[in-house]
Amino acid sequence: xxxxxALNVSKTYINHxxxxxxxxxxxxxxxxxLLGPNGAGKTTLIRIINQISVMDEGKILxxxxxxxxxxxxxxxxxPEERGLYKKMKVGEQAVYLAQLKGxxxxxxxxxLKKWFEKFEIGGWWNKKVEExxxxxxxxxxxxxxxxxxxxxxIFDEPFSxxxxxxxxxxxxxxxxxxxxxxxxxFSTHNMASVEELCDNIALINKSKVILSGEISEVKEKYKPxxxxxxxxxxxxxxxxxxxxxxxxxxxxxxxxxSKIRLLNGSxxxxxxxxMNSQCEIKSFNEILPSINDIFISEVEGTDISARY
Length: 308
Fold this sequence. Notes:
By secondary structure, the protein is an alpha/beta fold.
């Protein structure tokens, strides 16, 4: 059973198709990357899942059942547009947000104190929100999102405005929440974070899902069939240009580093055999595309192999 399914979801605003027959399936206790350029439709889908917006067609299933208004208590949502009441005290506001999610005041205070100490902001409990830095405020909002232990967490650009140390802190907490049983939908433009955290992804462009799958499967599908070989030449390297294409070669301290593309059904064994007779191989690795390169290639409609 999937934790969440969006099935054939469409949404139209005046003169604009925000989502066009979009479907995603998010496995239970996984981290799912929802990717796409600005204006692609990601936030519209997130708002529909959170029942902030109403879809025109399709359905949303939560744990196999059609989602209903009361299910919002099972969801923690951190929107890209942050918002705290700047004149309120930090602790008072956090308790208020917890109560909106159904926690009793005493339970909320106890849970929040633990999170505030973990995030090293315990001393700010009685300060006003406006006295906090942007990063501190975002820590408070992250805590407000997760403190009621929701089964589904939706983070929209969660690392925006954080320094590298706090980015790593949040990444670890997201992984901990996944390991403790939560399912995470994670929307970001930081493709390095996607590769580091996500199990599966979907890429939305111009209101449609244009690719989806496990990270490893997506990278395998888009690989450019190029190998990087570091070697010490024994003489001039000669390769059959009907089977191999030398894309580039660099030399450093007597060691050549070449990128070689396989052609016409040749495989890596053929290349190793050919190179072994002409050089001393130091390393041999297949080049797999980054999610960032796949993203750019699909959105721009360019050949990914040209990037290598």
